[in-house]
Amino acid sequence: MTRLIDVDKIKFEVFITTENYSLNPIYSSEYKRGWNNAVNALEQQIAELPTVERPHGEWITYEQDYHYANCSMCDFTITKEEKEEFNFCPNCGSDNRPKEGEKE
Length: 104
Ligand SMILES: [Zn+2]
Known about the structure:
The protein is elongated. The chain has helices at 7-23, 29-48, 80-85; strands at 59-62, 65-71, 77-79.
């Protein structure tokens, strides 16, 4: 199964790490240059990766069981508390937020 990841989050974390390295005098300029070269190579590779459309699903709840919800795309089960926490299915990555104009 394809694992969907948030590239913008990775880029942000790398940016923060790069900032920390660049501001910290403990790291040599050679080290910083090596880090920047690695980051540039990684960004190039990320840019060339294929993209997939994130599937849209929903959390299905059953009237007789208020404690759990199932992903409509993969049937993964989460608790009611987790349903409030997860916009995306932690198993298949589908976007399970209510669609625009839809009420939950
Ligand atoms: Zn799922």
